[in-house]
Each structure stands twice: as structure tokens, then as C-alpha cells.
Amino acid sequence: MSLALDELLGLPGLEEMTVRAGARNLQRRVRWPYVAENEGIAEWVMGGELVFVTGINHPRGEANLLSLVEDGDAVGIAGMVILTGGTFIQHIPAAVVERAEQLGLPLIEQPYALKMVVVTHLIGTALVQMGQVRRSRDDILGQLLTGDYPSLAIARQRAAHLQLALDEPRRVVALRLSAVDGLFERHRPEQAERLWQNTRQALEEQLEAWCRTVAGAVMAQLPGDLFVLLLPDAPDLRPALAALYRQLAEVTGEMALFMGLSCLAEDCAHYRQALGEARQALEVAQNMRPATGLCDFSELGVLRLLQGIADRSLIDNFVAQTLGPLIEAGRKHPYALVHTLDVLLKENGNGAQAAQRLGVHRNTIIQRIQRIEQLSGQSLDDSLFRMNASVALLIWRMSESQGKE
User: Fold this and answer.
1) What does the domain layout of the chain look like in residue ranges?
2) Pfam families, per this entry (predicted)?
């Protein structure tokens, strides 16, 4: 279990600790404190530690401190605390602060007057307490999401005790990293494992930091490396999730991340169904690879049937045959006819309404309809063509091709 650096620095009794660099990464999770006794730390840490540098057992000049910062960043420590004053390290050299800031490594100054035993006791106690709370939260959330609880009344009581407001309407988001197999195929097992664990840790840190900025957001991690978000419904939820996806994409490295969004669950009694919907949407996202990384269960429709097609090339060929002739690569707006067809179908073939929606003259719509029928060899009056086009457009809207316009 872990706590974010900014949470630890907010503990009563640690007010004298000062952030000197890397403030943008204070959401990093601290798994445990580690006091550096040797010249270097690379061989003695695994990632996620808050490393304390005292200078008591080894001289800590500028060169050594710079080396520690480099090593710490390379192995993925949460942050570094340097004790200053007294006999050993008088101050943190400017070059060390500058390098830590460049790397984004949180660098914290602790005066020697603030006793190490007090600091480590406060941090250790907070980590243990938070660990207990996190285990309880994940336990009750896991029970509600899977439906595996002895009593819904008791589950609600436990949730209330843990200050989880779960009887409000929520939507469930299921997130999972993809292309893990390729990671282990490209790298040696030990290197792949480290990349995998570091990516998962970074993803967890980013999700928890994001949830702290969204009122009512709750995160849980289920077996099978599935991250779950419980979010209040809001008009801007989709744009917010799209922005989250872009943010998370910066830490996923060689892997990809996809998300599935459920319909609205009125209360915690419906979480199991909502998770099932989110997981189905996640599977579609992994297969269709939408540009936003997100699929909404409420919008899947026929895509749920297409999930049964094992050969993705069949789907791609269907879209290419249906919409490909309408993509005019040599024109300024190569997708104009595709967009026009999409709007026409949404307006049930009403040219006047389609023109108004697209902001063009009705004569332009008439010309485009003629062009669509000429290039496709089909008539918009043909119900089979309209059905095929609707399905192809649904797939196309979710595909990466939209991001390449």
C-alpha cells in the first residue's frame, strides 16, 4: 500500500519539510521510506521508495548527490529527502536542485533539527493506516462490483463507515493496459517485468491523482490488472475521460490503454451489472482501437455482435468497401462525403435538415448525394445500403482513422 508524496507532506509534524524540486510529481506514491547508507542507491532500491540522505555514514558532496539523483530517477523512487544543517550536509547544491527539477524527481529538504525517528515514525504509521483503509475500500468495492457480498445491507454499512458515498448514481469505467505480450517478447524477462511494474505503478499514481481532482470519484483495482473508476454522471464526463486518456497515454510507454464506460447505475446494488457493461465496452475498445481509447456501452449497439467476428480484417474490409470510395484523398476535405453521408443517415435522408446541420447550402447537399451515389455505385434509397453504411460509419467513428483526418 502507498500514499502520495503530497499526502505525506501534509501530515501533522512534517511542516518543516520543504519541496525544493519536482513539485509537478508530488502525486507519486510512496511505498516505504529508505535511509541511504551507501555511496549509491541503485542496487538497494526497487522503486517507489522515499529515500532519505543524511551524510552521516558517507560524505555527500555535490558529485555524490547528483549521482544519487540520477540513480533515484533511473530506478523509479518516489522522491528524495536530503537532511541539511548540522555537521554533515550544510545545504543542497544548486546543481542538484536544478537536475532534480529537470528530471521531475521530487526533492525535499529536511532540517536536521527535525528528528529522523519522528519523520519515519509518522510516515510508517500513516502508510500502515492507509494500507488498512485501502484494503478495506478495495474489499468492499470488489464485493459490490462483483456481486459477491453476504449482505447488501452490511456492504452499504461498511461503505458508509469508510466514507464511500456509493448510493449515488454512478457510471463505471473499466481500464486495462494492452499489448503486454509484446513487451515480454521484445525485452529480456527481467527488463520486461520492470517496465511492466513501473508502468502499472505510474498508471495507478496518475489515476489516483486524477480522482482527487474529481468530486466523488473512487478508484479500485480488481484481480487481473483491471482498474475501475466509479464516477458521478456529468455532461462533461466524456470530454473529461478523453483528456484523462491523453494524460495516461504519456505514461503507458510501449503499451496501449483502453477504457470501457457503463450506463448509469442508480446505486451500489447495480454495480455488478455496470461493471459487466464497462467490461464489454472495454473489449470492444481493445478490438476497435478508438482514437479516444474509450467505448461507451450505451452506444455500442451492433458492435456487440461484431465482437463475435474473430478476424478483424473482415471488419476492416467491410468498412473499406463501404466507405473507401467516398474518401477523396486529393481534395482539401477528403472526408466531406463520409461526413455528409453520416449526417444524412442521422437525419433520415432529409436533405434540408442535413444542410442545416452541416452549415452548407441545400444545393451542395444535392450535389454531394449525387457524388456519393456515383462513387459508391449505390442508391441512398436502397435500405440495404443505408444499413451497411450505418454500421460502417459506426465502426469508422470509433476507429483510429478519425484521428488522421
Assistant:
1) 3-123, 165-300, 309-404
2) GGDEF_2, HTH_30, PucR
β-strand partners of 109: 18, 82
Q: Which tens digit of pLDDT belongs to each residue from 75-111? A: 889 999 999 987 889 999 999 999 999 999 999 999 9
Return contacts of 317-326, CB within 8 angstroms, 24+ apart. 318/388, 318/391, 318/392, 318/395, 319/392, 319/395, 319/396, 319/399, 322/376, 322/388, 322/389, 322/392, 323/389, 323/392, 323/393, 323/396, 325/375, 325/376, 325/377, 326/372, 326/375, 326/376
- State residue 304's pLDDT score: 65
Average model confidence (pLDDT) across the chain: 87
CATH architecture, domain defined by 165-300:
2-Layer Sandwich (3.30)
- Please, what CATH class does the domain formed by 309-404 belong to? mainly alpha
pLDDT for the residue 402: 44
Give the integer Cα–Cα distance in Å for 232 and 216.
6
Please check the confidence at residue 345 and state whether its pLDDT lies above 50: yes
Best CA proximity match to 289, nearest among 327, 254, 261, 257: 257
Q: What is the rounded distance in angstroms from the CA atom of residue 40 to the CA atom of residue 215? A: 42
Write out the DSSP string of 248-264: HHTT-TTSEEEEEEEEE
Grid coordinates representing 21?
524540486
| Helix, coil or strand: residue 68 | helix
- Examine the pLDDT at 206 and tell me if it is beyond 80: yes
CATH of domain 3-123: 3.40.1390.20
Is the predicted pLDDT of residue 312 greater than 90, yes or no? no
Looking at the DSSP assignment, which residues form a beta bridge with residue 173?
A: 229, 261
